[in-house]
Structures are given as C-alpha cells and as structure tokens.
Amino acid sequence: xxxxxxxxxxxxxxxxxxxxxxxxxxxxxxxxxxxxxxxxxxxxxxxxxxxxxxxxxxxxxxxxxxxxxxxxxxxxxxxxxxxxxxxxxxxxxxxxxxxxxxxxxxxxxxxxxxxxxxxxxxxxxxxxxxxxxxxxxxxxxxxxxxxxxxxxxxxxxxx
Length: 159
Hints:
This protein has 159 residues and is mostly helical. It has helices at residues 7-35, 38-64, 83-111, 114-144, 146-151. The longest helix has 31 residues, at 114-144.
C-alpha cells in the first residue's frame, strides 16, 4: 500500500523517538539494578521492552506503506544520575512522544490515512499510561520522601 503524503516522514520521526527511549529506559533500568532497586529495575526494563514492541509496530507499518524505516537516527538519550532525575527525564520523553503522535493523528486525519491514525491513537493511550505512572512515582516521592520511596524499590513485587 502506498503511503499518503508525509506519513513515512512522520513515522520515521516517531521511530527515532522510540529507538531513543528504548536506550534511555534500558540504561535507567540497568542503573536501578546496579543500585539495588530491583522493583524499579523490573518496571523500567519492562517499559524498555514495551517501547521495542512499539518500534516494531512502527517499522512494520512503514514497510506496509512501502516506505523505508530509518534505523540510523537516534535522538538525545537523557540519563538521570539518580532516580528522581531518571523519572523526570523519562517523563519529558513521554510527553514529547504524546505531542509528536498527536500531531501525527492530526496529519493522518488531514491526508485521510485512518489506519495510521488509529495506530497512533492506540500508542498515545500507552504513552499516557506511562506518563501517569511516572507522575505517580514523582508524587509519591514528594509525599513520602525519597528514602522511603527508594526503600520500597529494593525488592521486586511478588507476582
């Protein structure tokens, strides 16, 4: 299927951001593991894997539209030197992703690409859930204090 005007470019911008956050979250997860925050490590690593699945969906969709995924670009990976910095850096990335995807929804509506629009709308829901989780963590830190919060991150939740 041939892509509508500007859709491949838009999807490649989203792919760049997805590839960037995969790396950012992966490193943040590994840093948390190194610090002994097993619970936080597990959650953030899962988010990294979730972003990999999103990147895969974007790649598949670009190929479906007879485009070429640009795997060579990577945005700035912002590394937090402590947990609150990591959460804030991740929150910034998530908000930027929602903004980019929302612009994509508007563009896809304008050019009549409703399949891509629907895919982006579903992805926005995921990103908004991530935003909610991060904002909850930051609020919890504010309410209970960093030391209390981090002490709860030492052991992974039992499943």
